[in-house]
Structures are given as structure tokens and as C-alpha cells.
Design goal:
Blueprint lengths: L6 E8 L3 E8 L6 H11 L10 E5 L2 E5 L2 E4 L7 E11 L8 H18 L5 H4 L2 H15 L1 E5 L5 E5 L15 E4 L13 H6 L9 H8 L3 H13 L3 E4 L7 E4 L3 H6 L1 H11 L9 H10 L6 H8 L8 H11 L2 E4 L1 E5 L9 H6 L9 H8 L3 H9 L4 E5 L1
Antiparallel strand pairs: 1-2, 1-6, 3-4, 4-6, 5-6, 7-8, 9-10, 11-12, 13-14
Length: about 375
């Protein structure tokens, strides 16, 4: 369980006053005198910029990522800032580190796009943003902060290692962060090699093959990215898949901000966004016994300007929908009269392995597996 944040500070280099705390919540949590003692580790020399730094002082841990944006428009040709999280000195800060890094990347992107940190009218919003982050992470381990029409800040405290799901070869990684926030240079060489192949559709085994990286290394890299909540895992998309809505669909119905995010995500490229009522109708149209192909035949998502693949992706990521998997079971496994093809598949036909896993491990298509199972009198399928 994460230890609660005590405070958050936005620090900057002032052209006259030097390093200073511009804003902090709660107010006056850290005195100017105390800050001056650690300022060299908050607003740092170039060698330490863009790096995570943890400082123990005054009974607290300060976690920050000092940033520098170089441009002639700034005093001294650079904007230096740092957002620091403050926790008790005995706290386990592991889960906060990726959040600090992500927040620094968000603020850098906002400054580069529209001068969010350097223009006084937008800079005045920082205390409110810090307050939302502090309360959100302490109460729910996450927070969502809309900044403008194009940018919303999403922060989540990372899972502990024990909470991370096992990465399987048929799992499909999909980014939780916006592409503008992901800096490939911050990752190890192997992760950099597989990043271009993570698209929400390729599964782990395919990523390994196409990136020409050892399968076990890909699993480790994706596990690390899941831990830091850069990606999450969903199932392989096929038009023959069956999905159903979950009770969380009510969150989408009630949350206008989430509706806007959803509409933008599922919109077909180069076309104006769809109507939310059409998007919601498609989600509600998912049901047991109806495939995605059936849904498309009934509603024609393309006409509604909806990308049905992105519709399913977003639903899985947010928990609005879940996949119903098929688990085949051979009812007479000991029979010596089984065809050789069934004997080769027998280890997978005990009800513990779904179609995605079987097809990924054997190289067989879903259609071929369906034909084998439908033509065998002693194989049944469990949906769950």
C-alpha cells in the first residue's frame, strides 16, 4: 500500500531570485530556509536534468525530476522547473517515481505547446492542479485533470510487483500514456526496440518476432511497462470475438469528461468525431452470442464514424466491456480412437486454455480450431 503524499511543490529558477518554490500544497509546508538547503538537488546542473532524484532531508523524502527547456525567449535562454513529491523519510517511494516522471513530461509538453508554465494566466492554474493531484493520489491512487481540449493529465500510482499480472504470449499490450509523453530515450535498448510494435493489436509473440527480440526479453520488458502503468494488457482482437458490457458502463453514461475522451478515441481518422449516443449504443449492443462482426452488420460503425476496433480497445482499457473467451474441453481424453490431430491438441483441451492461447502456441487459426472442435462429437466449449 502506498504511503500518503505529504506535499507537492512546483519549483523553478527565477532569473533574479534563483531557485525558489513557486507553489506548494499545503501552503508553507516547506520553509524557504529548508528549501535553500536542498535547492541544489531540486533545480540542478545540466548533468542531473531529466533524471529522477530522491533527497532525504528534514524527516522527509523529496522526489523530483528537474527539467530544462532551452529557448531564447526565456530569461537566461532556459526555463528550469521541477515538481517534487514530499513523503515521510521512511516511506516506500517506488510507486511514486513513474508518476513524477510522467507529470514532468506532461508539463514539458504543455509548455512547448502553448507556454503553459511561462504565461501568467495559465501558470496560475498550477496550485489547483497540485491540489487535485495530492488529494486524488492519496484518496484513490489516481487522478484525472483536464487542461485544455487537447490535453488531459492522467496519473496512477503504479502497481506493486505482486499485483502485476503475468505476461502471456497471447496478451496484447496497449499504451495508457499519450504518445507525446512517451520518450523512447528514457527506456533501455531492448524496450526501445519493441516500442514501435506496440499498437494495441499485436500480441507478445508477434511483437517478439517482428522486432527480432528474444521472446523472454519481450515478456520482461512488457512486465516492466505494466508495472509502471505505461501499458496495460488486453486480448487479441478478432471480428469473431464476443464481448459484453460490465457494470462500469454506467460510469461512461454519467461522466461527461469520460464521454469526450471516449468519443475522441473511437473516432475514425480524418473524420469528425461521432455522436456519443451512437458510441454508447454500440457498447450496449454487445452481448453474449453476438460477435463483433454481428455488431458491425447491425449498426454499421463506419457510417457512424466509429472505429469498432478502437471502440473495443477503449472499452477493455477502461473496464466498460470484457471479452467472453472460449475454452474447449475434450470429454473423452483417454480414448485411443482419437484422430492424431486431436491427440496433438489434447494437452490444450482441458478447459484451462482459451482459443487465443491455443492458437498462439500452436500457430493454428481460430477458424481452423473452430472447424476441428465443431466436427468432433466429444469436444465442448465453455464460455467464460
Amino acid at each position: 500500500m502506498a504511503t500518503n503524499l505529504k506535499a507537492i511543490m512546483f519549483c523553478e529558477f527565477h532569473p533574479i531570485a534563483g531557485p525558489k518554490i513557486a507553489y506548494q500544497v499545503p501552503e508553507d509546508f516547506i520553509s524557504k530556509e529548508s528549501f535553500d538547503c536542498v535547492a541544489v538537488y531540486i533545480i540542478t546542473k545540466p548533468e542531473l536534468q531529466s533524471m529522477l532524484i530522491t533527497v532525504n532531508a528534514f524527516g522527509y523524502k523529496f522526489i523530483g525530476c528537474p527539467m530544462c527547456i532551452t529557448n531564447a525567449k526565456y530569461s537566461r535562454n532556459a526555463l528550469l522547473f521541477n515538481v517534487c513529491f514530499v513523503l515521510d523519510d521512511a516511506a516506500d517511494v517506488h510507486c511514486y517515481k513513474p508518476v513524477v516522471k510522467k507529470l514532468a513530461a506532461y508539463l514539458t509538453s504543455l509548455e512547448l505547446e502553448n507556454g503553459f508554465l511561462s504565461q501568467e494566466d495559465s501558470k496560475e492554474r498550477i496550485p489547483g492542479i497540485l491540489t487535485t493531484i495530492l488529494h486524488g493520489l492519496n484518496a484513490e491512487r489516481k487522478c484525472t485533470i483536464p487542461i485544455n481540449e487537447a490535453t488531459t493529465i492522467f496519473l496512477n500510482l503504479a502497481l506493486t510487483k505482486g499485483d502485476c499480472p503475468k505476461v502471456l504470449d497471447h496478451d496484447v499490450p496497449i499504451f495508457l500514456w499519450e504518445n507525446s509523453v512517451i520518450n523512447a530515450a528514457q527506456w533501455d535498448i531492448t524496450t526501445q526496440q519493441i516500442l514501435p510494435f506496440i499498437d494495441g493489436f499485436r500480441h507478445i509473440q508477434k511483437i517478439a518476432a517482428q522486432a527480432d527480440v528474444d521472446l523472454n526479453l519481450v515478456r520482461i520488458c512488457i512486465q516492466n511497462m505494466v508495472h509502471f502503468q505505461v501499458v496495460t494488457l488486453i486480448s487479441i482482437f478478432q471480428y469473431s470475438n464476443v464481448y459484453i458490457p460490465t457494470p462500469k458502463i454506467n460510469d461512461l453514461f454519467q461522466d461527461e469528461q469520460l464521454q469526450g475522451e471516449c468519443v475522441n478515441y473511437v473516432a475514425r481518422k480524418f473524420r469528425r468525431p461521432p455522436q456519443f449516443c451512437d458510441v454508447f449504443q454500440l457498447y450496449c449492443g454487445l452481448s453474449a452470442g453476438a460477435t463483433v462482426r454481428d455488431l458491425c452488420s447491425r449498426y454499421n460503425p463506419s457510417f457512424l464514424r466509429i472505429d469498432e476496433r478502437c471502440l473495443i480497445q477503449f472499452g477493455l482499457m477502461k473496464g466498460f466491456v470484457r471479452r467472453l473467451h472460449k475454452f474447449p474441453v475434450l470429454l473423452m481424453p483417454e480414448s485411443s480412437m482419437q484422430p492424431s490431430q486431436i491427440k496433438r491438441l489434447a494437452r490444450w483441451l482441458n478447459g484451462d486454455h482459451n482459443y487465443d492461447e491455443i492458437c498462439t502456441e500452436t500457430g493454428m487459426s481460430h477458424q481452423n480450431l473452430d472447424e476441428i472442435i465443431e466436427n468432433h462429437p466429444h469436444i465442448t466449449v465453455i464460455w467464460k
